[in-house]
Amino acid sequence: MQPDLDKVFKALADPTRRYLLDQLREDNGQTLGELCRRLEMTRQSATQHLSVLEAANLVSSVRRGREKLHYLNPVPLHEMQERWVDRFEQPRLRVLSAVKRRAEEAMKPSFVYVTYIESTPEKVWHALTDRELTGQYWGHYNESDWKVGSRWAHVRTDGSGVADVEGEVIEAVPPKRLVTTWFDPNGPKDQEPSRATFEIEQHEGIVRLTVTHEDLPDEKAHQDVSGGWSAVLSNLKSLLETGHVLPQAPWEMP
């Protein structure tokens, strides 16, 4: 089927739909439930995004019993490449692609988590930066004046005053974007800090919160933050939507 490139461009314009395509690129043939798992998106919202991708012929679906499996279809992307890239830039871009691939392979691992919250950007920003609120859903107080260049600390709520994480505020644009560095004050002296970016976007009555944790030192750190962020942000979502945190600390689950 000849791809409708207008629909392709429309489909690719949304970061959530690009993220869905990335998920299928990594693991093709996923169910709706599997695609929703990391996004914390309702099935209805995910279905709407998948409908746009299917209309652009970027995703195809196949029934297997009661399940509906979704597959990435690269044909429209190939058509775009043939039409605008291959005839003019292919040799040069092949070299650049190889350089980019080698650079990415040498980069430290990073983690991205997206959640959707029934709230406002102002309330989400407040929840991320208010000392008492972070103590409720995170188990640590986040302490800072949140000005660019200021120190921030992730302090235990047990009264010991011990900070398990410290860092610097790199960027603060309330209520849209917060960037901080992270390092273990009790760790090796020569450690390089990682970086966490919080992006807050509003769409009508909901907020999309994207957390990107970059420059992690190794795969073990990636595994640790993967579980940690999922638990903390689920607790944050519950607090903002219901007024209370989850009935037990989610990071304590085996």
TrEMBL record:
CDD domains (UniProt xref): HTH_ARSR, SRPBCC_CalC_Aha1-like_GntR-HTH
Family: Belongs to the AHA1 family.
Domain HTH arsR-type: 1-92
SUPFAM superfamilies recorded: Bet v1-like (SSF55961), Winged helix' DNA-binding domain (SSF46785)
Database matches in Gene3D superfamilies: 3.30.530.20, Winged helix-like DNA-binding domain superfamily/Winged helix DNA-binding domain
Transmembrane segments: none
InterPro entries: ArsR-like_HTH, ASHA1/2-like_C, HTH_ArsR_DNA-bd_dom, START-like_dom_sf, WH-like_DNA-bd_sf, WH_DNA-bd_sf
Name the record gives this protein: ArsR/SmtB family transcription factor
Species this chain originates from: Amycolatopsis silviterrae
Any single Pfam family the record assigns to this protein: HTH_20
